From TrEMBL:
Boundaries of every DUF4357 domain copy: 246-288
One Pfam family here: DUF4357
Protein known as: DUF4357 domain-containing protein
Superkingdom of the source species: Bacteria
Amino acid sequence: MARGKTIQLYLMDSVSKGRIKCTLANWTGIAYKIPRTELEKAKSIDYLKQSGVYFLFSTSDETQEHIVYIGQAGTRKNGEGILNRLQEHKRNPDKDYWTEAVAFTTTNNTFGPTEISYLENQFTKLAIDSKRYIVKNSNEPSLGHVTEEKESELEEYIDYAKIVIGALGYRIFEPIIESPEIITTVLAPTPEPLLSLILKQGKKEKIIAQGKQTNEGFVIIKGSNIKSSTVKSVPTKALKDRERANLDDNFVLLEDMLFNSPSSAASFVTGYAINGKDAWKDEQGRSLNEIEKLE
């Protein structure tokens, strides 16, 4: 069974939307969440004068999709490191999209060029693989050359950093659906059931999409079929979801897709407004409404 972790979040400005310092028990790393508007206040943070890796976060105005840029910052001759790089991004008109930054370094100032190159490369790969965010990096960062011992040390740093960045509110490294694991103890949580959306095709009924509820909403699973046509009264959000969906020429979903509710997921599939609590059913034919009443 996974052990609990103790994370300390220090609200540096006494408000949740201000600067946040984050540390984790038994970890030499340290992270700072800094709103773009508060960069000037961060000048007094000595740790941000060191080498490290940083994330620039924002949300698309058009599609509401999450956006991230991942970069590295080495210590300059003038003694400026991460903060100086963030200030350069703030002045750069090509990177005016970001609203918050999260910076990672160490309490013992042990990161050199090799370490930050490795971390930038691995963080970028993890972000791309999770498909949670649009990754703005134009080129794949260099992996650098690290020894086996150093790689093991940096991978441990990454494991802790993933916990921290998730605690700060960014699920950039978490898969939309957790990989199935073998339940080995009675205390293991019961996995959410696989649900199906069934539509009539002629005189027959056919499963056209499958999905699962998660603690974030509802996920339609890769391989589901989406109706190619829509009605005039189709919800606007369903149309926008169809525009951003990764579909093949036969309207088959090519990757898992997260929705904020069962109804928005069902409307996306069918092309018309529909109550998802009634539409999604388990193997026994019970709707979500019926399942929830039994819980």
